[in-house]
Write a structure and sequence with these properties.
It is a single chain. The chain is built from eight helices and eight strands; from the N terminus they run βαβαβαβαβαβαβαβα. By secondary structure, it is α/β, with parallel strands linked by helices. It has two domains: 107 residues, 3-Layer(aba) Sandwich (Rossmann fold), CATH 3.40.50; 103 residues, Rossmann fold. Helix 2 packs parallel to helix 3 and helix 4 packs across helix 8. It is globular.
């Protein structure tokens, strides 16, 4: 049995890590690699600014270096993919960013994808990531729901905002797939997909699926 896939939540909010862990349960399959979710204790409560992103790069890379002999792959579970390229320089094990993984997955599910962000300030960062990936022509748009990372645990109000944003992306922007633009939205994926009737991608699930394939094929 290979060592576990290590999923790193770079913020310090344990509820986010718990939600990620629950969302990954269907991917813990017999004969496959185990999945371990950890919280970066020294991270901010939510990664919502460029300063937050910069601050977690070094500790994320340090954790990966510490665990590179006891993990088969790494997932950085923040939609800003903080330190993704630096982390790949830190280890020879596969490292997956959830935004990159979500976009790759969305391309297999529909012609155009939209993103639901937590805050308006997130939208320019996501746009830069889309352009860097060369996916501008497949990008339908990005809508923020005005909720911080630490507020995502609220079920009914957050779900209603997600569904409203998803409907706008679907009906007004032509999105055939919606990506949840924060790891903390994981618990809402299935219900939002049922309401929208188009695929909804949880980015950490997308990254874990790719990581499992990479580990199994090694």
């Amino acid at each position: 049995m290979p060592p576990p896939i290590l999923v790193i939540n770079p913020n310090s909010t344990e509820a986010v890590t718990a939600g990620i862990d629950d969302a990954l349960e269907p991917l813990r399959i017999a004969g496959g690699p185990s999945i371990e979710c950890v919280t970066l204790k020294d991270g901010p409560p939510g990664i919502e600014t460029e300063a937050h992103i910069d601050a977690v790069i070094a500790p994320v890379c340090a954790l990966i270096e510490k665990r590179q002999d006891s993990a088969s792959a790494f997932i950085i579970a923040c939609f800003s993919d903080p330190g993704l390229h630096q982390a790949r320089d830190t280890t020879q094990k596969p490292v997956f960013g959830i935004a990159e993984s979500a976009m790759v997955t969305a391309l297999t599910m529909g012609e155009r994808f939209g993103i639901i962000s937590i805050l308006e300030d997130s939208i320019p960062r996501h746009a830069r990531a889309v352009q860097a990936a060369g996916l501008g022509e497949r990008f339908a748009g990005d809508i923020a729901i005005g909720v911080s990372v630490t507020e995502l645990a609220g079920d009914d109000s957050v779900l209603a905002r997600l569904v409203s944003a998803g409907r706008t992306l679907k009906d007004d922007h032509g999105a055939g797939v919606v990506i949840l633009g924060c790891a903390g939205m994981a618990r809402h994926r299935k219900r939002s997909e049922n309401a929208l009737r188009i695929p909804v991608v949880d980015p950490t699930q997308a990254a874990a699926t790719l990581a499992i394939g990479a580990v199994q094929l090694r």
